[in-house]
Amino acid sequence: xxxxxxxxxxxxxxxxxxxxxxxxxxxxxxxxxxxxxxxxxxxxxxxxxxxxxxxxxxxxxxxxxxxxxxxxxxxxxxxxxxxxxxxxxxxxxxxxxxxxxxxxxxxxxxxxxxxxxxxxxxxxxxxxxxxxxxxxxxxxxxxxxxxxxxxxxxxxxxxxxxxxxxxxxxxxxxxxxxxxxxxxxxxxxxxxxxxxxxxxxxxxxxxxxxxxxxxxxxxxxxxxxxxxxxxxxxxxxxxxxxxxxxxxxxxxxxxxxx
Length: 258
What we know:
Elements: E1 7-9, E2 12-13, E3 19-21, E4 37-42, E5 51-57, E6 61-68, H1 74-84, E7 90-94, E8 102-114, E9 120-128, E10 133-134, E11 138-139, E12 143-145, E13 153-159, E14 168-173, E15 177-183, E16 189-196, E17 201-205, E18 210-213, E19 234-241, E20 244-250, E21 253-254
Antiparallel strand pairs: 1-2, 1-7, 3-6, 4-5, 6-9, 7-8, 8-9, 10-21, 11-20, 12-20, 13-19, 14-17, 14-20, 15-16, 15-19, 17-18
């Protein structure tokens, strides 16, 4: 990816700031295939084979180098510093590969190398918020299930990523009652919310396992009796029961490094 000269970060294109991405490693590019992983094992005295416990997948770090298109001055340096000075992860992607998104922030040391004549380049280390790359954000239509029948309605989400994805959902309930979602493509795994009120708006974040209602002082944490959804790679046919409107937002996750 690093042959691309233009990248997007913190709501700004690099070339708009008068800088271009450069390769400092010679003619060949060395890129990480996917995020690193750590084996969690327990060693027992007298046993040569440790007990495997789990794998800890780590966020990625990568070095970014960019050169000034023209001679720089310290006003330009201040502008770039403001661009980089963030305290939360910002979206990052190369313009040649906009389908692959990362969320990063600068960490560790950062340097400017120059010849004393206002010509040079900047090096810094970026850290991602996850071991995976993401797709662009997808927002489904707002499905109108206000006339839903007892047989339910199928809504399909196609996960084109490499690992299961977690969705966000916005639900507006029509009539008091429950909402249930059965993933018929994944062993009929179910997600359900009980005791919703007529005209109630509910937001569900399946990654954070969080649920919010627009009704003051009404909490549904104890009304979710099933696991939050993880949609496997491939086609997911979701049979939805209950009268409502429902909309989904999600990103695919990719096994892809930088």
